[in-house]
Input
Amino acid sequence: MSLPSLRPAVFLDRDGVIIENRPDHVKSIPEVCFIPGALEALVRLAQRDCLIVIVTNQAAIGRGLLTRQTADAINAYILQHITAAGGRIDGVYLCPHLPEEACVCRKPSPGMLLEATRDLGIDLRASVMIGDALTDVQAAQAVEAQPILVLTGRGAIQAQELSRSGLKHTPTFASLVEAVEQILP
Output
């Protein structure tokens, strides 16, 4: 009996990578604003033989700024637009906890990546994590996936943190568009 083959994945942070980051959090569908080129990049990525998974910290839920149901509706709205553009997302994983709760799912902990791996059969060492924060890079490193930082969202500020954290070797691109162009063969 053969074991099922594992597939590589592209893990994506949501806010700051696919949609605009807001200093007061994305709390409703009208606040969703796609980063220019993100939908087109996701369409290109969908042509690749890999899983595409969103992993997103959403402490606004823990802070009481929105409910889990509203967060799920926002994610459904985002997925609807990605699908309508011709892209796809194979899974969405969300951490509702506050940073001080020290849960296993909140990035930089790799809990969401590990849960997706169990659910979807992911080969973590053949996978990449694209994010706009040091915590995204750290979550990728924790599971031996390739981290990529984009300079959209908080990325430009967080790039300085990479140097201070000894992670200046992390590949950095202007946006999801450029990151996808680099990872596609």
